[in-house]
Amino acid sequence: MLVFHQISVLQEHLKQLRNQGMTVGFVPTMGALHQGHISLINQAKAQSDIVVCSIFVNPTQFNNAHDLAVYPRTLEADSQMLDTAGCDILFAPSAEEMYPKLPTMKFDFGALETVMEGAFRPGHFNGVGIVVSKLFHIVQPDKAFFGQKDLQQCAVISCMVNELSFHLELVICPTQREEDGLAMSSRNRNLSPEQRAIAPFLYQALNNAKASLLQDKEVSEVKTELAEFLRNIEGIELEYFEISDFDTLQPFHGTLSQNSGGGKIALCIAAFLGKTRLIDNIII
Ligand code: PAF
C-alpha cells in the first residue's frame, strides 16, 4: 500500500492511474478503523480498480472540543489493517495540509440539517461538507463509499453531490454490527467495559420500537416506550430518538398504516454512555 501525506503528490499519482484507464473507489474515514470500515474497503475493491482510503480527523466537524481531543488516533494500526485488507493507497494529510487557513465558506443543507445530528451538533455538517468536498476534489473518485450508520451524513453528502454535480457515484453500505448488535463505531473503543456491556441496549431499543411500529402503535407512544426502556438502564442517557421519513429525514407522524406513500421510515437514536456519544439507526 502506498501512503501519501501531500495533496499534490497524491494527485499526480492518481492522474497517472486514471490515464491508464483505472477507476478509483474512495473510502473517506477519520481512522480508528474497525471491520465496518474494512467492509467499505471490500466494497470499494469489488467495484473499482484502485482503492483509496483517507484518514483525517477533521477538526471542522467537531462542535465539542472534548470529543475532538479524545477521538482515537491509531494511524499505525489503521495502516496495517488497510494494507492487510488490500487497500492500494492511504491518504493521511496533516491539518495544515488540508487547511493552510480555516475555510470561511459555509454549507447550508436546509431542512436536512435542522434535525437530529444537525440540531444537536451545530456546525457539524458544515464541517463534513467542507472536508468531504475537498477530499472529493483531491481524489476525484468514480465511486465513494459511506456507511449507513451515519444516515444523516449520507443524506447530506448525497444532497451535496447532486446539487454541486460531483461526477461520482455514492455507494451507501449497510451498518456492520458486533455479535451482540452494537453498531461498529470508532467511538466504541472509548467505552469502559461496563459501558460496552450496556451499549447493545441501544440496538435493542431500536428493535423494540420497530416491533411496536409494526404493531401499528402511534409514533408518540413508541417514542415514550423507548425513552422509558432506556431510563431503566443506568449509564445510558438518551439524547434523541426520532422516527423520520427516510428520504427527507423529517419527523414521521401517526402510525405505519397511515403511511400512505409507503416510503421507508428511519428510526434514529443518539445517546451518551458517560462522555461517549453513540448513534445508530434502523430502517423499516
Ligand atoms: O464518517 C466519517 O468518518 C467522517 O464524517 C468523514 C466522512 C470521513 C468526514 O470527515
Automatic annotation (TrEMBL):
SUPFAM superfamilies reported for this sequence: Nucleotidylyl transferase
Catalytic reactions of this protein: (R)-pantoate + beta-alanine + ATP = (R)-pantothenate + AMP + diphosphate + H(+)
Database matches in InterPro entries: Cyt_trans-like, Pantoate_ligase, Pantoate_ligase_C, Rossmann-like_a/b/a_fold
EC assignment: 6.3.2.1
Enzyme class, broadest EC rank: ligase
Keywords for the protein's UniProt record, in alphabetical order: ATP-binding, Cytoplasm, Ligase, Nucleotide-binding, Pantothenate biosynthesis
Entry GO MF terms: ligase activity
Subcellular location(s) of the protein: Cytoplasm
Binding residue positions for beta-alanine: Q61
Pfam family, one: Pantoate_ligase
Annotated metabolic or biological route of this protein: Cofactor biosynthesis; (R)-pantothenate biosynthesis; (R)-pantothenate from (R)-pantoate and beta-alanine: step 1/1
Residues given in the record as (R)-pantoate binding sites: Q61, Q153
Principal location: cytoplasm
Record field: transmembrane: none
Binding site for ATP: 30-37, 147-150, 184-187
List of catalytic residues: H37
Subunit structure: Homodimer.
Entries under PANTHER family matching the protein: CYTIDYLATE KINASE/PANTOATE-BETA-ALANINE LIGASE, PANTOATE--BETA-ALANINE LIGASE
Note: The reaction proceeds by a bi uni uni bi ping pong mechanism.
Assigned protein family: Belongs to the pantothenate synthetase family.
Record function comment: Catalyzes the condensation of pantoate with beta-alanine in an ATP-dependent reaction via a pantoyl-adenylate intermediate.
Name the UniProt record assigns to this protein: Pantothenate synthetase
Species of provenance: Flectobacillus rivi
